[in-house]
Amino acid sequence: MRAMILAAGLGTRLKPFTNSHPKALAMVNGKSLLQRNIEYLQQYGIKEVVVNVHHFANQIIEAVDINAGWGSTVYISDESSEVLETGGGVLFAKPFFEKETAWLVMNADILTNLDLNKLIAADKALSNDTENYIATLAVTNRTSSRNLLFTSSGNLVGWKNNNTLEEKWAVDKNKTATAETIIAKAFSGIQIIHSSFFKALNLTSKFSLIDAYLQIASTHTIGSYDHSDGLLLDVGKPENIEKAEILFK
Description:
Layout: E1 3-6, E2 27-28, E3 31-32, H1 33-42, E4 48-53, H2 57-66, E5 73-78, H3 85-92, E6 102-107, E7 110-112, H4 116-127, E8 133-140, E9 146-151, E10 156-161, E11 167-169, H5 173-179, E12 182-194, H6 196-200, H7 209-216, E13 221-226, E14 232-234, H8 238-247
Parallel strand pairs: 1-4, 1-6, 4-5, 8-13
Antiparallel strand pairs: 2-3, 6-12, 7-14, 8-12, 9-10, 9-12, 10-11
Helix pairs in contact: 3-7
């Protein structure tokens, strides 16, 4: 399996560091987030990785070159001319996945001990070789400003901003809420995407993966895998760098 690490974002929450660096090169106990996640993927035999770049792109390219990909084959998806957001970034990197039936995508600014073997096994069980299955999203029960909304069977149907109460639904909200229990989960920024994603996608250029999933979930199945029993830390905020240095040696 190949993987993609999303590292093109501006990292505005991680200022002042990101005033002169990409967030993927923020350090935790002497290792950058990018190095840590490349080495994390290696633990599960994933050694071919594409990294998208935009903000201070040359710094990431140089770090990859100097460190020989930290032992992995690392390809660069260059979005220097325009940041394409998470979904647009995956679409732009489509040539890297042409021969893959499924691949893993993760944010550069998260650290976790999620067992990817369990995620991959869950994805295989959920997809059951059907073209209608698009992706498996890793989620937890943690408190978050935004939640993905799933049916009791674990399929994506919507999204909610808990601060503004804005909601987006992939299906008829009233019919779904009446027929099934709706469960809110926090997205972990890790997912396995199937090649059917590109066939079902109607968005182009610049868009988020969440918007893509909500568009696709109206006609296809997007499942979930809960790993609330493990560690997950969003290191996109300065205060969480200190937490990360305690949790991830």
